[in-house]
Amino acid sequence: MSIELPNYGNPETREHILQVSWDLVAEQGSTLKLTEVAAKAGVSRQALYLHFGDRSGLLLALVRHMDETLDLGTSLAHVHAAADAGEMLRRTMRLNTGFWSAVLPVSRILEAAQYEDEALGAAWRDRMAFRQRTFGAIIRLIDDMGELAPDWTIGTAAELLYGVAHFDTWRELTRHLGWSEDLYVDTMTRMLRRSLLVQR
Predict the structure, then answer these.
(1) Phi/psi zone of residue 124: left (φ > 0), alpha (ψ -120 to 50 degrees), beta?
(2) How far apart are CA 8 and CA 47, in angstroms?
(3) pLDDT digits (tens, 9 = 90+) for 141-154
(4) What is the per-residue pLDDT for 2?
């Protein structure tokens, strides 16, 4: 279920606060404080509460703002427009690596601190729930095409895709083992095609 956030105040001020918060999380990590955000954004702490309610609300708004800034909706439309399931999986993996690369500093902090900081954990889980829904929609499209292998349920296939595309897996392969983005896309697409799709 999506969490509703307050949406009051001037939209330009809200946008500015979110960009400042993005920069601060990337610089400072999980120590982000509302007083620091207010000072760097040049607004009062009361303005932060007006726009976001509290620290948890700010962080939830931040991770959703990251998706909007990266125009995730347009990218997902490109995935959904693929002519066949194999190409859909390739576009999914290309979008996945591009997205994680763009949000790496913040994602690293949210993922690491999710069990120690309630607000950061809520923000991370909110985005992971969104990703699960997104991958579920992709698998349903593949099933509608008649290309999902018969030994998979939509739910289990979506969970596999979610796990394969998870931040931890992407980070280990591309940042610690040194895979290029092209190698990541090619290898993961090949594996997913063989695992999930009807072999013709």
Answers:
(1) alpha
(2) 10
(3) 999 999 999 999 99
(4) 44
**Length in residues, the chain:** 200
> What is d(CA 150, CA 130) in angstroms, rounded to the nearest whole number?
26
In angstroms, the first-to-last Cα distance of the chain is 38
Tokens standing for residue 199:
């072999």
Q: What is the pTM of this model?
A: 0.81
pLDDT tens for each residue of 44-81: 888 888 888 888 788 888 888 888 888 888 999 999 99
The single residue listed with the structure tokens 């997104």 is 134
Distance between CA atoms of residues 136 and 128, nearest Å? 12
Measured CA to CA, the distance from residue 65 to residue 69 in angstroms comes to 6
CA 36 to each of CA 3, 13, 39, 41, 130: distance values in angstroms, whole numbers, following the listed order: 25, 16, 5, 8, 29
Q: What is the SS3 string spanning the chain?
A: CCCCCCCCCCHHHHHHHHHHHHHHHHHHHHHCCHHHHHHHHCCCHHHHHHHHCCHHHHHHHHHHHHHHHCCHHHHHHHHHCCCCHHHHHHHHHHHHHHHHHHCHHHHHHHHHHCCCCHHHHHHHHHHHHHHHHHHHHHHHHHHHCCCECCCCCHHHHHHHHHHHCCHHHHHHHHHHCCCCHHHHHHHHHHHHHHHHECCC
The answer to whether the Cα torsion of 189, 195, 197, 199 is positive or negative is positive
- Specify whether the CB–CB gap between 100 and 167 falls below 8 A: yes
